[in-house]
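TL;DR need structure tokens for one chain.
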Amino acid sequence: MEHPKLRDSRKLITTEPYPINEIPDDLIVRIGGYIAHLLYVGRDDLSGGDWGDAFADAIGGKHLDSPVGIADVVLNKMAWSMKTVKNQNPFNSRCVRLISGRCSPDYSYGITDPHKDIQQTGRAVLGIWNERINIAQDNYNPIRTSILIRSNDMLSFCLFEEENHRFRTNDYKWEVNKNGNLIGKFINSGETCFTWQPHGSQFTIHTRVPKNAIKFKIKQPPALTKNDILKTIGFDTSWITIFR
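>> reply
TL;DR here they are.
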């Protein structure tokens, strides 16, 4: 369905390359090819930056590669926040924890003792997240989070997307766990949704893996030998200058 035209609409509208979480096969193949390339050159793991590079390369977008903000990969006026987590068996993963930046209630709200009023601190943490969403939506719309779950051997993967959105601060209650971290739970169900660590101010979102998440495997590429590399780059004796 097309976006309706509204006189008072200030949102940026862009054409989505595909419906959310309906990632086409050719895009999966291009992503797989990028990862196979990393394996071929000797990489044994995938960083968040690598995942951003892989997705941007596959979709023809730009990887901003910025340590702050929500938008990691952009295509016209659409953006993705790129997240990757490791799991021994991605195909059976049911919930993942996404590190979603640092939220400092001290810096943003002047809350120097986060444990004095944990409900206030929890609302502040979500308020910081929501403001980051506001800033991102000033420049991009829609904004999605793209989550890649990778196996230890980098051969099995689970991929899904979700809408990047604000959280209603009144929907959650906060508790302190045995490590002194704040845990945000959905009031209606008691489900754990967030973790915030006072030391380092790290904010983590607990996300359920949907049933329609895409699962795929990559064939282990052959090992790259020294002779393969030298042949590919056209090495010969003229490359070496000897001084005595």
